[in-house]
Structures are given as C-alpha cells and as structure tokens.
User: Fold this.
Amino acid sequence: MSKEQLDISLMGDCLTIKGQSRKEKKEDEGGRYFHREIRTESFERSMTLPAAVDAEKAVSSFNNGLLELTLPKLEKVKQHKITVS
Assistant:
C-alpha cells in the first residue's frame, strides 16, 4: 500500500482511516474470449478519540507500511478571573 491509497479524516472526536490497495491483476486470453480479474482489498476503521484534537496541528507520516499520526490535544480554556471595579 502507498500513502496515496490512504484517506485519513477527523470529524469532531471521530478519527477515520480508509485504505484501498490493488493486489493482483490477472489476464487470460483464450481463443474467442478475453478474461481479466483485478483483486482489490479495502478497509475502514473509525475510532472515538478520548480528548479533543487540534486538527490544524495534526501530522501524519507513512514509511515502510507504518502509518504514524500525531494528534495534539486542544488546550483547555483556562479560567480567567475578572475583578469587579
């Protein structure tokens, strides 16, 4: 599988990874017919993330069949105290 065959999406707290690879191409020419088979394999995995992710800072890499995702958490909103004057 190559990195062009992967599709990674993030919607809210749901991460989805899809992939499709072409495995085998078989052709047979016999007398009066031509027969062709192309076997493909595909997968799709979705998972709910335990924390909110900053999608703008998300990074992925694919090397030697290993997909690595870096999904940094969103910084929590810090409480800001306002004094009354």
Q: What stands out?
A: The two ends are 64 Å apart (CA to CA). Residues 3-70 form a domain with the Immunoglobulin-like fold (CATH 2.60.40.790). The chain has one domain: 3-70.
